[in-house]
């Protein structure tokens, strides 16, 4: 299969709303506080300047919505560069950014390096939950039913055409074209790739034997960089199929995944159900609220192809202003208002639950102490 790499990085304009500081001091952040999560008025009152972050492209719409409102209310300029999860983690460890977004957990060696950079264990907090859609470009077809085994075969290159019996048997009455199946994967180091493979490995272990990682394990495939890249390549290629944050698939056709004997469409509610029904990882701490997602398709009503995107930060910074800015921004992202703002702008992600917010806020409270 011919390799096709697309440099279609999601370029997001930097939002830089500058607040005029008069005799009354820093702009009020009162509108950022609510019963669901404080915006840390005490920390934000002293905060000013610029806050830089980078990482997961899945968060790009949410980050734009968060920083629009946050900057407007605080005067703190937030920059978020959607470089991809792996690059974001690397830049955070190197001290190039104050925070990072990542769709996959920090690896053991990354944790050690992040702790060295921060002077203590870093924060790793789940602030963005979204279903991963299996999206395709087939003329006249907007929705398909597929089980995990068939999805795994498609992305492993074991199914050659869209009218294959394995697909047709699950889609009676659908006019499936005799088109080649063209799987499209992420070319960059991607947490979405790892989350998707984790689903395949859990739900279809006989068909997907590769160990899940941020790097796509099959060589010679059609690929593109960033979420926007795989979406654009799939849109422009009849017969293409990809995996991507559901909020960004647009008009592409999508797959209903077999879950507990029924075919289930993705939704924010179904994605959130997986998170609330899954245990924390064995190495989770009061600073690292990390989940071991149950993706095998056994939980009724819970969409199993989910990414939980984390925000990574230090609890202390050489510059006290950076700590105040990070604390204020993280508290806003975790707040009910922040989660609702992101969900409205993103159109596909699920707000975190109140119980999860309590854990997250307890960790954020450690910043600057």
Automatic annotation (TrEMBL):
Residues 41-337 form the PBP domain. PANTHER family: PHOSPHATE-BINDING PROTEIN PSTS. Coiled coil: none annotated. InterPro entries: ABC_phos-bd_PstS (IPR005673), PBP_domain (IPR024370), Phosphate-bind_PstS (IPR050962). This is Phosphate-binding protein. Belongs to the PstS family. Residues 1-25 form the signal peptide. Pfam families: PBP_like_2. It comes from Arcanobacterium wilhelmae. Keywords: Phosphate transport, Signal, Transport. The keyword Signal applies.
């Amino acid at each position: 299969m011919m390799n096709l790499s697309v440099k279609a990085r999601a370029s997001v304009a930097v939002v830089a709303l500058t607040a005029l500081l008069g005799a009354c001091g820093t702009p009020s952040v009162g509108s950022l506080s609510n019963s669901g999560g404080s915006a840390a008025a005490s920390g934000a009152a002293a905060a000013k300047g610029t806050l830089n972050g980078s990482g997961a492209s899945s968060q790009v719409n949410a980050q734009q919505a968060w920083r629009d409102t946050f900057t407007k209310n605080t005067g703190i300029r937030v920059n978020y560069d959607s470089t991809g999860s792996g690059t974001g983690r690397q830049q955070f460890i190197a001290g190039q950014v104050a925070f990072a977004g990542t769709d996959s957990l920090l690896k053991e060696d990354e944790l050690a390096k992040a702790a060295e950079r921060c002077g203590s264990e870093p924060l790793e907090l789940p602030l963005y939950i979204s279903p991963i859609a299996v999206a395709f470009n087939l003329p006249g077809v907007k929705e398909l039913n597929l089980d995990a085994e068939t999805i795994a075969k498609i992305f492993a290159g074991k199914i050659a055409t869209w009218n294959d019996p394995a697909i047709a048997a699950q889609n009676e009455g659908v006019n499936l074209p005799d088109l080649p199946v063209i799987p499209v994967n992420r070319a960059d180091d991607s947490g979405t790739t790892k989350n998707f493979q984790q689903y395949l490995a859990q739900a279809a272990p006989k068909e997907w034997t590769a160990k899940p990682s941020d790097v796509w394990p099959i060589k010679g495939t059609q690929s593109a960089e960033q979420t926007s890249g795989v979406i654009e390549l799939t849109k422009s290629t009849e017969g293409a199929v990809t995996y991507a944050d559901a909020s960004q698939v647009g008009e592409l056709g999508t797959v209903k995944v077999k879950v507990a004997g029924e075919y289930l469409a993705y939704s924010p509610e179904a994605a959130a159900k997986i998170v609330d029904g899954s245990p924390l990882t064995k190495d989770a701490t009061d600073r690292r609220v990390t989940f071991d997602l149950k993706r095998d398709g056994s939980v009724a009503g819970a969409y199993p192809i989910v990414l939980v995107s984390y925000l990574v930060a230090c609890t202390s910074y050489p510059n006290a202003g950076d700590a105040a800015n990070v604390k204020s921004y993280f508290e806003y992202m975790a707040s009910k208002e922040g989660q609702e703002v992101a969900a409205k702008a993103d159109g596909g992600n699920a707000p975190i639950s109140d119980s999860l917010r309590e854990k997250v806020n307890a960790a954020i409270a450690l910043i600057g102490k």
